[in-house]
Amino acid sequence: MNISRKPTRVIAVGGLAIGGGHPIAVQSMTNTRTDDVAATVAQIHRLEAAGCELIRVAVPDQASARAIAGIRAGIHIPLIADIHFDYRLAIAALEHGAQGIRINPGNIGGAKKLTAVVAAAKAHQAPIRVGVNSGSIEAGLLQKYGYPSPECPDALIESALNNVRLVEEAGWDEIKISIKSPDVLTTVSAYRRLAAVTDYPLHLGVTEAGGLIAGTVKSSVALGLLLSDGIGDTFRISLTRDPVEEIRVAWELLRALKIRERGPELISCPTCGRTGIDLFALAEAVERHIQTMRRPLKVAVMGCPVNGPGEAKEADIGLAGGHGTGIIFKKSQVVRRLPEERLLPEFLAELDRIEREV
Fold it and tell me: Disulfide engineering: 181 pairs with which of 14, 134, 139, 248, CB 3.0-4.6 Å?
């Protein structure tokens, strides 16, 4: 199935083009203290290695705004500042090198203050993401439409478009929009309706999605439906978890929809009574290892050395083991037999050799 992307206008965050048919970009957000430059840069490096293409940092105070200069100097992907309430933080973040800002214009302090923020964004050629969540909708719109629901997400949409209009009236149209809800069906309904009435690029996400399991399921359902509709130019999988996990889920979602592919695909069996090896630990170790690989391989981790190679015959390389022994196979052919304790380290070393051949 070929997914036809909804046409949107193009904006640039740093050197990354967004919208207009450019590749859908994977985004995350740090959870370190932004004013701790070393810790934040270290986390962003881990995210870069996993495939993060845009990074957002919280700017709750002036120390965090000043830290942006040092963070940007130490990383390789565009840096977005997340601002709430205090317009001075948005201006300071831009002056210290933020390549984009995320604001809710309705809570930035009025038209005069918003005009000052927009002037700074224009001066630094930094796009503005107008971000509206279900919990930040103006009281008047909630009274008019009620709390956003799948049947009536209008409060979210009208809030976003009203705030976009404020930015436009202040003289800037390098804009990206997000409208998020913690409810999957409300998120889908809202973005579908918004996509029908604007050509600004859209950032997708389910806010407050939850931990690894709940957050992965909710985000994958909502974003999978929208991306398969051709809606969305950037997205974040929001998890109460190490943000590197967000990137792992994001790329698997893009791979599943055949939109983009990065690095190996892991094939592993769900285990059964024949499993005689700690397959859970093996699969997790291999999955972590391949996260930073770029070569598009199919990698199998199987629990049965008898049936494993045949069941994973489409894999480029795989391992299987049980009862103290293991095998490494390629294209269903066994290439090495090993004691169980040597299976994982030699398999990872073989993956590294394959990666170096690129």
Answer: 134
